[in-house]
């Protein structure tokens, strides 16, 4: 790898400029000022790019070095299905996911203050209205792990979803989806369908898992995949 030259000190530059004629000094100073602005701009852009890359990797990093359950393998859940787990609904009451046997389920980690919130809530409700009578259930799990974009209480989250978007699909207790404290059902979901090169961690709000009637996880979708784009896959399983 080529070495990166070290920038000369201010004193060194001043000494060099002092040996030049007045016109030459003026030209050199202009060049140096322009160069400094360019370097500052480049550094700023580089820092911004690094910040974006760090954010995209943070979800994966959060599962490394933590408790064993944070990055559970498929072997950990051998013989298990989605229907074997118990979760709490948005009101704090326990719900056995076995009640969704014979249903196709779309599981989504939601947030109220994300750039993806409006389009996802609207499309989730539209897809639910179209397919619920044919056997679709959409289970929404609030999560505050991505940008702190779901900070409210369960009560506020419920009011937001049901009042603003008239959501009628089931809402559940706010959970962690990554890390040592990840909800067991999310450890299971991630173990069944990894997330690609960055590992099995959920990458952002509105990641989606499609579960068939037997409780098998058949597909995983990126946060940017819209619910309407998944509709055809859902219908194949109904």
Could you characterize the architecture of this molecule?
The chain has 238 residues and is α+β, with helices and mostly antiparallel strands. The protein folds into two domains: 11-60; 69-237, Glutaredoxin (3-Layer(aba) Sandwich). It contains six helices and six strands; from the N terminus they run ααβββαβααββα. The strands form two sheets. It has a four-stranded mixed sheet with strand order 4-3-5-6, with helices on one face. α3 (117-131) runs parallel beside α6. The longest helix has 40 residues, at 22-61. The termini are far apart. Residues 1-8, 28-56 and 62-70 have low confidence and may be disordered.
- The helix fraction, in percent, is 25-40%
State the fourth-level CATH superfamily of the largest domain: Glutaredoxin
How many extended strands?
Answer: 6
Distance between the termini: 56 Å
What name is given to the CATH topology of the largest domain? Glutaredoxin
Number of domains: 2
Strand content: 5-15%
